[in-house]
Amino acid sequence: MGPYVFKQGYFLVSVEFSDDFVGTVTLQRSFNNGKKPWIDVDNFIVPTETYAVNGGNDIYYRLGIKPGKLDSGSVTVRMGV
After folding, report:
1. Domain range list for the chain
2. Cross-strand partners of 25
3. Three-class SS of residue 33?
4. CB–CB of 65/23 below 8 Å?
5. For residues 20 and 76, is the Cβ–Cβ distance under 8 A?
6. pTM score > 0.90 for this model?
7. pLDDT per position as a tens digit, 6-21
8. 36-58 pLDDT per residue, tens
C-alpha cells in the first residue's frame, strides 16, 4: 500500500488505470495517527476521481494495491487537497 496519509478536511482521491488493468485499488483508514490497524473503506476497479472527507486529526488514509490484487496493467493513484 502507498505511504499516502492525510489528516483533517477534504481530500481528492484519483485512480487512473491502463487499458489492460485488471485488479483492485483499496482506500484504507487508520486511527491514532496510523498506529491502529488499517481498515478498508473503499475499493476501486474502474477509473475514479472523487472527494473524501476526514473529520478527525488522528485519522490517516492511504491508497494503493494490496499484495495479490494486481493481475495486469498499471495504475496511477493520487491523493491531495
Report:
1. 9-80
2. 44
3. coil
4. yes
5. no
6. no
7. 556 788 899 999 999 9
8. 899 999 999 999 999 888 877 77
| CA 34 from centre of chain | 14
Instruction: Please say whether the beta carbons of 74 and 15 come within 8 A.
Output: no
Partner residues linked to 14 by β-bridges = 49, 78
Task: Check: CB of residue 18 under 8 Å from CB of residue 75.
Answer: yes
Which cell numbers in the block locate residue 72?
Answer: 495486469
Residue with cell 494490496: 66
How many of the other CB atoms lie within 10 Å of CB of 27? 22
C-alpha cell at 57: 486529526
| Residue owning grid cell 476526514 | 54
The C-alpha atoms of residue 49 and residue 28 are separated, in whole angstroms, by 16
Hey, which bits of the chain come out as E strands? Answer: 9-17, 22-23, 25-30, 39-44, 48-54, 60-64, 70-72, 75-80
